[in-house]
Each structure stands twice: as structure tokens, then as C-alpha cells.
Amino acid sequence: MSKSREPVESLLLYYLFKWSIVSPMLHLYFRGRIYGAENVPAEGPVVVVSNHASDFDPPILSNCMRRPVAFMAKEELFKVPILKQAITLYGAYPVKRESADRSAIRSAIHSLENGWATGVFLQGTRTPDGRITEPKLGAALIAAKAKAPLLPVSLWGTHAISSKGSAVPRPVPLTVRIGKLIEAPGSSDREELQALTQRCAIEINAMHDLGR
Questions:
Q1: Where are the alpha helices (DSSP H) in the chain?
Q2: What is the DSSP secondary structure assignment for residue 46, as one 8-state letter?
Q3: Phi, psi (5° rounding) for residue 7?
Q4: 0.85 surpassed by pTM
Q5: Average pLDDT along the chain
Q6: Pairing of strands 93-95, 175-178
Q7: Is residue 197 within 8 Å of residue 139, measured between CB atoms?
Q8: What pLDDT is recorded for position 1?
Q9: Residues in the chain with pLDDT values less than 50
Q10: pLDDT at residue 75, rounded to an integer
Q11: CA angle (107 as vertex; 112, 69 as ends), nearest 5
Q12: Cβ contacts of residue 181 below 8 Å, gap of 6+?
């Protein structure tokens, strides 16, 4: 039987991390703006699909959802003691580098069945300016198999956070726009998945083009 919420201990860790680190940094250091937070369902499975331009994207995105978002993480991170337990509690699941890891897709579906919001970067990798140019079918496929709606999100400005040769993030202005829920595809038919993927890409790029 599917669950409607994340585990209590995961929620506690999320709020601790959110209010002690991520939210203050987002609003004070990055002067973050958030639009559309009312579109996020408070409970139940949802595939959060977004663009991707920075390593800072997962915590920023999760912070703006007002609930934890489970993301794929490099399998190497799960070999580090303590870190493994922490990121697992936060909802992360492992994926092999540079491979279409079917176990990661199964893990994403499992997290949705357990009431999590599960994050998928639509292009699967970072892009230089944050715009989506080559969307992948993974998010739509996961949504179809889990029968979960999709939530398009645009992260604007995160591509400029990191500067070459510096470990200190730049205090650039950031804007997060959250779109309307999109119903899960009715099947895993490739044409339907492609159409839904293109719809997500168009909506995310349109929000991104609004800028600050």
C-alpha cells in the first residue's frame, strides 16, 4: 500500500537543514525569490521536474517545495560512513555515473510509492545557462510507472553561483518558479512520453525566460 507522506525522521532532518542553512542562505545571500509555492501538493507522490545548472540546485529546489525532495546521487557518496545514512534519510538514492541505471529508476518509483516528492532533472545533466535543450524521457517514464503527477520547476540564476578557481559561491540573485501540476501519462507509450517531456521542457523554459 502506498504512503502519503515521507517518514517523520526525514521530515525532521529536512526542516532542520532547511531553516538552519538553506533558507537563510537562499533568502539573505542569494536574495532568492520564489513564485508558485502554492502549486506544490502538501502530500502524496509527485515528480518534481526541473532544469539543472549547478550542484546547489537539489537543496535549493527542495527548500522551495516546503517538503523533502528525493534526488538521485552518485553511488560513490553512499560508500562514505555517516554521509550515507544522512543522505538516505534525506531521500537520496544511488545512481551509477554515465549509465542508464535501471535500479535508480526503480528506486525513484519506490520513493514515489512511499509518498515522497521525487526530483528529476529533465535533461539529466547540467546545462551552461540553465535552459533545457535536450530533454530526456526519464521523468515521464517514472511518472507513468508510478502514476504520479509531474510538477515543472524553473531555477533561474544558479548557473552563475560557481566561479572558476573559487570555492566560495557567488552571491548572485536567484529566482525559482513553480508551475502547475501536470497529470501523469496514461501509458508508457513512447509517443505519449515524448509529448509530455516536450510539454515539460517548454513550460520550464518559458518560466526560465521570465528571468528575475
A1: 8-17, 23-24, 57-65, 83-89, 102-113, 138-146, 190-209
A2: E
A3: -60, 150
A4: yes
A5: 91
A6: unpaired
A7: yes
A8: 45
A9: 1
A10: 82
A11: 50
A12: 39, 41, 46, 149, 150, 151
